[in-house]
Amino acid sequence: WFKEGTRTGYQQNHQLTISSSSERSTSLFSLNYYDNNGTQVTSNFKRYSARFNNDYDLLKGKLTIGENFALSKLAIHDVNSTYGFLVMPPNIPVYDLNGGWGGVAMPLGMDDFNNPVRDLLIRKDNRNNYLKALGTVYANLKILPNLALKTQFGVDYTMEYDRTIDPKWVEAGGKSNTINRVFQNNTHDLGTTWTNTLTYNLKLGEHTVDMLGGLEAYKLLQENFQGNRDGLLLENRDYAYLGTATGDSKGLLGGGNERKLFSYFGKINYAYASKYLLSATIRRDGSSVFGENNKYGFFPAFSAGWRIKNESFLKDVSAISDLKLRASWGQNGNSAPLASALLVNIYGVNVDGTSYPIAGNQTGGIPSGYLRRSLGNQDLKWETTTQTNIGVDFAFLNNRLTGSLDWFNKKTTDMLFLPPYIGALGEGGYKWINGADMTNKGFELILGWNDTKGDFSYHITTNFSAYKNKITGLPSSVRYAYGGNGLLDDVLGRPLNSFYGLVADGIFKTQEEVDNSAQQPGKGIGRIRYKDLDGDGVINEAYDRTWIGVRDPNLMAGLNLQASYKNFDFTAFFQGVFGNDVYNSWKELSDFWNIGVQNDRNHPLRVLDAWTPLNPNSDIPALSRRDSNGEKRLSTYFIEPGSYVKLRSADLGYTFPSKITQKISVERLRLYISAQNLFTVKSGKFTAGDPENPGTGYPMPLTTYLGINVTF
After folding, report:
1. What is the full DSSP assignment across 356-419?
2. Tens digit of pLDDT for each residue in 571-591?
């Protein structure tokens, strides 16, 4: 059940751009329409967008005003039934003999399954809709030739409105939904930013100084409403609204959130003879999400550069086209989306949730009430990141060989964290705190080579990067939330993205192995054996778990190829990650008959190689309808190498000669064919399909494009 019997959808993208300019104004207007049908039937994404920019010079060039606005409308139908398609037993038909929906026949004794095709088709008209407006207006006044005042006001508005129908349906075998329902949701996010800056530029001989000072105010207002109601006479989008349903109103929820930021900042840049470069920045940021104790944070930054190529001893060295050293140190802050405030939800009638009577004892339905959602923390403070960078930029052989090398040391302190809490606190026990300290150290290398041989030219760019992540500080009150056994010496020094679990030690192949192993509930021939790490003769998660993998790769790399020959052009982009571990949840289907809720699921072919007395050397557990051995627990059995290399994209184009396009009044005409996600090379030890998506999520499809670019 993929579109038109294939494993790909289709896309179309159309854009019209009109620009004009005069001595005192510049204008740009563009329209865009994008339509993308996904691989699963009914999945679709549509976008309509418009953009216009205008700039005007007034008062003989002393005053410049302008605006930049973008408007877009999005409609998304994205009901992911990938898992349903994978696990649906193949002996269950899509339709029954009478044309109705196929389903699980209860007399067969099969577990509960939903028909994934029915799920998609009956909800084909349901979609999420978004309206987005993003724009700024500004005015820049030259007070003096080297002194300017600029004010800018920006708006970022998003509205989401959804109306979906849950219709009635009946499947063969008796499974049904006898009550239909309509859901409506409306969300508004309005962010405004007002920035005022004063700039001063000074040039004295070979000395250049640029100074900037300013302040900025940001406000985000969020409001939402949602509800649902049973009892639709017609299951039709033209009819189905909350007001036309006849049942009780349910799930009526509404809320809001407001955040404010206010910042003072200043910056100064100094350069001498284009050889010595210095810069300093200071910021003082305040956020409404913090309590009065720590509302403001101070964040400075400094950088320096030395363009060695401009020194006299290198000016005449033709082999060196450019050489620059640079270093920087700086801090920035992060504020949590919800932090110090005590959050309370006010509930209405017949809500699927908890509500408390305001006026004491209450008989019958509770008309309204309050539910605490979180606790306040007046001592919460800014999360601060301090980073040091040292780098070099270079170009050799008349700029044919170019590149840069950067080393960085990034330390984050007082990380904002929302830990779990003990049940004794009751509802709303969540509280934001300042948690761990963390470091990231690494490097990034970029190399490029370009050359031209007659009509043939090419450009090759490679990049390599690596980093090491460590938890360097951890409050004792939250050490359990970061994994490990709760001991600080076990967590400190470890990467944040680490796996912690049992160590799988092969398959029990004989009764003697079972009898001589540590106590393990559910152990038996053909089952996974776990290591007794503490040697107490009992397998338990308190003392026999350890660190079993790290999600972070040891190396990330990319390769970009560009080439052209006469009117033909070609590009290709390769990307890879190496040395990382992933949790392969695909094994729950490929290696086990049942370690989940449902029996009789469809399975990949690997289950055919499961352990049996006739297949004693298999490393796949024996098939069983019950998971008495607890084999779904996180263990090394599910941790596999996540390294891969992918050809992300390739593009081949042809640009028609001007002598042809001029005859049809076209400035430029290019035809092209391109593709994305062409192939993946992975580790032989990875047992699923895609290590970048090691589970049952929406697959990354091979996508091909055929397009035309026309400029008039």
Report:
1. --TTS---SS---EEEE-----TT---EEEEEEEEEEEEEETTTTEEEEEEEEEEEEES-EE--
2. 999 999 999 999 999 999 999
